[in-house]
Structures are given as C-alpha cells and as structure tokens.
Amino acid sequence: MSSPFYKPRFLKVFTGLVYLYLFIPIVIVIVFSFNSQKSLQVMDGLSLRWYEEFFDDPTLMDSLLTSVEIALLTMLISTVVGTALAIGLVRAHSGTAKGFNVLMLVPLITPEIVAGISALLIFSQLGIALSIWTIVLAHITFSISYVTIVVRGRLASIGVEVEEAAQDLGASRWESVRLVLVPSLWPAIVAAGLLVFALSFDDFVLSFFTTGEDAQPLPVRIWSMIRFGVSPTINAVGTLMMVVSISAVALAVLIPRLFGRRESGVKVLTGAEE
Amino acid sequence: MADEAIGIQGVTKRFGDFTAVDDVDLSIAQGEFFSLLGPSGCGKTTTLRMLAGFEVPTEGRILLEGEPVENVPPHRRNVNMVFQSYALFEHLDVEGNVAFGLKRKKVPKEEIASRVAEALALVDLTARAKARPNELSGGQRQRVALARALVNRPRVLLLDEPLGALDLKLRRQMQIELKAIQREVGITFVYVTHDQEEALSMSDRIAVMSDGRVAQCGPPEEIYEHPTEEFVAGFIGISNLLEGRAESGGRVRIGDDCLEVPDLGDERPDGDRVRIAVRPEKVAVDEIGTDPYRIEPGMFTVEGEIESKVYLGVGNQLTLRLGNGSRLVALEQATYRVRADEQWEIGQRVRIGWHPEHCMVLG
User: Fold this and answer.
1) ipTM of this predicted complex?
2) What is the CATH number of domain A53-270?
3) Is the CB of B89 less than 8 angstroms away from the CB of A164?
4) Domain spans of chain A?
5) How far is B279 from chain A (nearest CA, A)?
6) Are B39 and B192 in contact (CB under 8 A)?
7) Do B89 and A170 touch (CB under 8 A)?
8) Which of B13, B59, B79, B247 could form a disulfide with B156 if both were Cys (CB 3.0 to 4.6 A apart)?
C-alpha cells in the first residue's frame, strides 16, 4: 500500500477483540437471563421464567425497592447540597474557595473500601444503628462531589453578569439565585442527579459496609445470594439493573438537549468548555 | 443643581492596592447622553458599576437625583444597566426577559403586558416576542437587553460597551438607533465605550478617562478640537505632536522655524518647553515650485519630505519628515479634482502648512 493513510488491518482486528472482551460478559448475562433452562452454559429456548422468579421473590423485590429508595434519597439530598456547594465555590473568589475546590475531589479518589470501613467505624463509634439512612449518608459523601463538578462546569459558563442583571432589574440576591441562576443551571442539576442515581443504585462496596440487617440493597442481596449457589435469576436481576443504570445515564445526556440548548449533554456532564 | 441626574463627588474605588477610580467628580444632567471613554483599565466600567450598585465606592458620594445612593443595593436603585454580554436569561423567552423587572416590582398584569409590548415595539422586536434568546442574532439579543432595561423607565440607563460584540456595520446602525431611542424616551444615558468614534458621534458630553481619573470632560467638539492634555489628543483621533520652546509674543520655535500659536497665552516664560498638536486633516501638503494648491495664505509653512503614503481610497495618509527630523501625519482628502492614487512619490520634497489656530497647546 502506498497511501500515507494506510491503516494496518491488525488494528481493526485488535479493536474488535477489545470490544468483544468488554462486552462478552454483559452479553452473556443478558442472553442467559432469557434461557428457559437452569443451565448457565447451554441456551435452551427463550423464556421470561427468571424474570418471573425475580418478581415473585419477596426478598429480592424488597431489595429492589430499598435500592430505588436509597438512590432517590441520595439523588435529592446530594443535588441540593452539591449545587449549593458549586455556587459557593464558583462565586466566592477567595483563596479558601480554591483550596476547597481541590478538597472536594478527595471523596472521588478515596478508595471505596477505605470510605466504607471508615463510615462503618464512625457509625458504630457514634452508636448509630445501620439502616438505609446510613447507606444514604455514605452514598452522599461521594455523590456531592459528582454533582458539584457537573454543576460547577455549567456555572462557570454562565458568568456573574446574569445574576447581576437580575439584581439590576429589582431581584434581591436570593431571588436572583432562585429565579435566574437555578433555572439556568437546571439541565446540569437534573443530569447530575440522574448520574448520581445510577451510581448509588449499583454501588456495592459502600453499601456492603453500611447495610443493616433489615434492608439490603440489591447489589448486596445479589452478593449474598451467590454465596448459596448461583441461580439464573441473577442474570435477570443483572439485566434489569443494567437497564435502570443505562436509562438514568442516557436521560442525563439527553435532558440538556430536551431543554432546547445547543450544547450536548456530554458537555454538561463533563463540564467541558468549548 | 435641580436638573442633575447623577452626581459623582470625590469618588475613589480601590481593589486592594489597586486604585481603579481615583477621586472622580462628574455631574451628569437630566436627559443627557453622557459617555465615559477610555482604554481598558481606565476605570470607566468600575465607575458605571458604582452607579449601578455592584461596587461600593471606597470614598466619595454618588447622588441619584440629589439622593445619596452609594450604599443602596442594586435592586433598590432606580437605574438599569445594559451589559456588555447582554446577560439575557436563557430560560425565559424574549417577553419573559423584558417583563422580569416589572414582575419584581409587582406591576399589575395588564400593565406589564402593555408596557412589554410597547418596549418590544420600540426596539422593533414585536415579531420575536416568543423566541428564546439563543434563537436570536447578536443584534436582536442586544435589542432585547435594551428593551429589558428601558421597560422599567429608569431615571438613568447605564450601558457598558453595549455594541462591543457586534460587527462594524451593525454597530454603526445600532449607534444611530440607540441615539434615536434615547431622544424618544428622554432618559439620561451613561454610556461606557473605548471606541472614540462611537463616543464622538453619539454623546452630548464625553468624559475621557485615564488611569482612574477624568482627563477631560466636555462636548465632543471641545474634546476633539481642544484637548487639554497629550493623552486626550492621542486617544481621540490621531494627533501630531511637536515639541518646541516658547518665545516672546506667543510664538513657539520648532527647530529652525518659528510658529505663532494664538492659544499659547502671554505668561509663558522664554525657552519654556511647549508641546503642541495638530490634527492630520488640518495639515495641507503642496508640491514645491508650483502655485499653492492646498496651502492658503496665513498658514504656517515648513518644508519636508514624503516618507510613506497609505492609500485609503477616499484619500491618502502621508507620513512627512520635517527638517528637524520630527514626523508628521497628514490626511489628505481626494476631491472631484484630484484622485488619491495620482499623487505623491516617496521621497518627494513638499511644502507643508497649517493654520496657527489649529495648533492645540498641550502644556
């Protein structure tokens, strides 16, 4: 080949193999969730048998509801706190704010196992009984950082002048935040909330350490199920969880577009500048 | 003063060690189109922001129709601002943007509707009332910002480089419209710009600012024809600066030549250093050895050489070198008799002249 843009064929093959490696486990889970037999090796006709079993299992359903509840609470609390934090960090032009901007990243890079163990230690030291609230508290710690990063990116692109304009037109400081700033940030807040929902919904490590006896979220329940032998129901549960997580993230990407803005949802999520 | 819209009295604004506005005194009359003109960092925007209430003066007083307002927050001041970035509310449509101020003031619904319609008609945007800001062109966004401010019928409208983001042609058109709107509504405009042409063409009075202080304040003609200092002469248009020594009888010696300067006054001691400026369009250039064509009787004349020539279409911009080595720029208008491209060779010896009364003494 004399073309200077010749791309060797092995690169295509290699890329294909990488994608196979990434997706084969997921595909296997999805495919076998529709298997009519108990086997995890042989496909033997399609059925919704394992989905029925999942929906008929009161403990699993209980765990699903618990997970949704935890994810919703985490989403609500962390979007409110995270948005407030973002506004404070961007609008306060002090040196302290710069430090806190960096500090805010720490929960994101803290190994989850460390965060989980320290959360557990604190709760037991303070004599707080483990419940869904301890899980929510643990999830909020890292969720706030996600919300703040996403909202901060959007906030930086809005500029102070919009708030000043609102005040100039007779809005008090609080009104300028409520009537102008928050509506302008809304796509980013919604996107961040959905992202946090997805993260909380499938979190295992933190949940594992902070779960009480009474209500186990789905990932923790699956883990304890596997200890007593693998049932194909797991494939059905896994597939459903994937659908929930992917839908949340897809919405997070789509919603900013539905708001009629020109920038892409990916940009809102990553806070990337043009 | 009864008809004073704004009084700025001894106002200083410091940010840490930096003095942005340095002891400024200005009085702006009711209904005036007043421009704050200067390069970036001269303090013009900070001055405007103090009028709006976004900055509190470190020292001094700001009076709005005689009432001190320096500690009144922006939302309680009866002034409105048009921002350089327009700062439109992207989540509201054009109507929502314009109605925002009236809603804050709890104006009755029917009145809001009629005043918004009126304001949109004023800026010729009635057809786009339901559009979102991101669907509008730059010029239309500018008009929304203007309508949003004017609909509140402020005592004073503050404009921070409102045309800065528009291209040249649209800017010229908006200058004319803005001036027409100001005449129609009769509101005092305080206009910040770094564009001297814009300030000259629109303003009733201009305050030229430099390093936080007002260098000169007056009508456009006065600022242009009689600048009181070098900065103003240089910032407004091009000026030729000449250095000389004062001589008796109000004359200035520049090199071998002596120039009578009517503006000089009698009190100058002999040998005192004098700087004078001449506008390029006041300088006449003629060929040597022919009958005077542009140079008139009564002009002060010197000989020089053409150093460079820039063809402008409507004329030429000539850089001339005088005998004493100093340079002079002359702007020569083409006429129905002379085409700009038919004249002058580089290096050609010429006669240069200007009327003594066109000399500006800069101290």
Assistant:
1) 0.81
2) 1.10.3720.10
3) no
4) 53-270
5) 40
6) no
7) no
8) B79
